[in-house]
Amino acid sequence: MWKTILRRILIMVPEVIILSILVFLLAKAMPGDPFTGSINPKADPAQLHHLMKLNGLYDPWYQQYWHWVVHLFHGNLGQSYQYQEPVTRLIAGRATNTLWLTGFSMILTYALALPMGVFAGRHEGKLPDTVIRVYTYVTYCIPFFVILVLGIWIFGYVFGWFPTTGSISTNATTWLQTIGSRFYHILLPAILGALFGTVNIVQYLRSEVIDAKRSDYVRTARAKGVPRKDIYRHHIFRNSLLPIAAFAGYSITGLLNGSIFTETVFSYPGMGLLFVNSISYRDYTVITALVLIYGILNLLGTLLSDIILTLVDPRIRIE
Fold it and tell me: For the ABC transmembrane type-1 domain, which residue ranges apply (predicted)?
């Protein structure tokens, strides 16, 4: 298995190189520049041209790409034009907030999806199954950003139960208050993200439970008098988790990508909001770094799914 993982990692190297070239070219192809309007709306065009030349933006794209790659291997992602600080430090500060939000959303997603999927499959065709299926269909039909807007309007403005912006309260001084405030700020966006993320998992798990109930090994267990709870716990649930385990890596990367919408709607200072702001201000260095990071995370998510599937079921080997 380790040889296969190493081979997959080596295959990812040319994929990352191609991705970096495409990302760099697309960022440079964006209209506008990072300096117009950032200094002074009435700034002399000669001053803007001087800044463009000073930062090498008039150089051929391959020269700019080569300099960027050389700096990248030295751990330098460049300087942000908008924030005037190193991109590495800027992303590191925002990544903490995104990981908090994504990690908590992931926990809530599986905490809700697993019992719902098993319960729906166990009571196939009955009222609980119908209610859960209606929930998944309705949630699947509503766009994610609509769910976020409705959630922030109802629970943030109408009831006032949760904060609607930021990641931490300015009144938090001690470490305990800081953790509590951070948890309070991510609770609503994490719940809304989890409700949307449960749809595919519930549908997959429900189908697997229904198929497992009709399998031969379950019929044999019932014929031997194995209790119903033990059948679901040791036979049906365990075997039904295989496709869900394979889906885990994609779920993590999906939540990271979905954080762009969540952080933008909630004005949550994470990597997603930083990416949207960087596009608005033509901050090329931040755009290329973030897209490259998200692309690498998607590739790692694919690899992680295969590894988890192999660990859950030892009979499966990655070939």
Answer: 95-305
